[in-house]
Amino acid sequence: MSFLLKRLSQKNSWNKVFKQRLTEPFHLNVIALFVFIFGSFRKKVAYDLVIRPQHAFGLLNAADQAKLRGFNEITIIEFGVANGAGLMNLIAIANKVTKETGVKIHIYGFDTGEGMPEPIDYRDHPEYYNTGDFPMNKDLLEEKIKGKATIIYGPIKEKVSHFITNISKNAPIGFVSIDVDYYSSTKEVLELLKAEATCFLPLTYVYLDDIFMSHHNEKCGEMLAVSEFNEEQPRRQLSYHRFFENQRIFKNANWVKQLYYFHVLDHPYRSDLKRDRKAYVLDNPYLKFEGNKKQFD
Q1: Where in the chain are the domains?
Q2: What tens digit of pLDDT does each residue of 180-202 get?
Q3: Does the global pTM surpass 0.70?
Q4: Which superfamily is assigned to 55-296 in CATH?
Q5: 20 Cβ neighbours under 8 A, 6+ residues apart
């Protein structure tokens, strides 16, 4: 509760409340108040009542999908740990998701440990970022996350390449948060998504942190890296689900447009033509109506 009060004391949090939350229908906000007080964790995720709702949605749905596929564990990754607020939030949410689903969650973070590297050119948005931005209090953060998450330090390209060789297929990747700001760094992060298909869930959730900013576009930053990845990988597609917004109770939050679906089209699950289930049968109320009508003729 004290953490929540601290968040609400920040100007940025109130901007989100006024611009995103209070622009939603009044009755939904009233219902959300009751859910906040009395609702289950799953209900709170549905009503965006968990801090960093993108993490809550991604982890809960990844765990649900993993359980459905017969997995007891999943892996989640944050690229761009900085001072660790996001990673610690993932730890807190993962504990609740495990309690809800029974699925164990392994958490990894990637960071230089020394702030942002040198930008390469305009594609890295030097108008927003600079060398050394977002440093880390490494000793304090490591003390806080000990035994709960693992941070991998160093150049992304080098560390991702090594990480790929050690991914456990018994704990496939289900959620990835990308907050490395630069085009060049995102390009290196997306090398992860070229790993063997079974290293992932068939549908993996990917959060792109920086694309809401006004200077970001498909010719630079994270979106350029995504566009190039999709062009180069015909059976791996990172795409925005156009109807995802309609599936959410609250639709105005930025994160709803920042969550992308990573489709692993070469995953064995996507190619299994033999499904052990009954055939789908569609209902036809018109046929029932015609039958009832004849009874009265």
Answers
A1: 55-296
A2: 999 999 999 999 999 999 999 99
A3: yes
A4: Vaccinia Virus protein VP39 (3.40.50.150)
A5: 250, 252, 253, 254
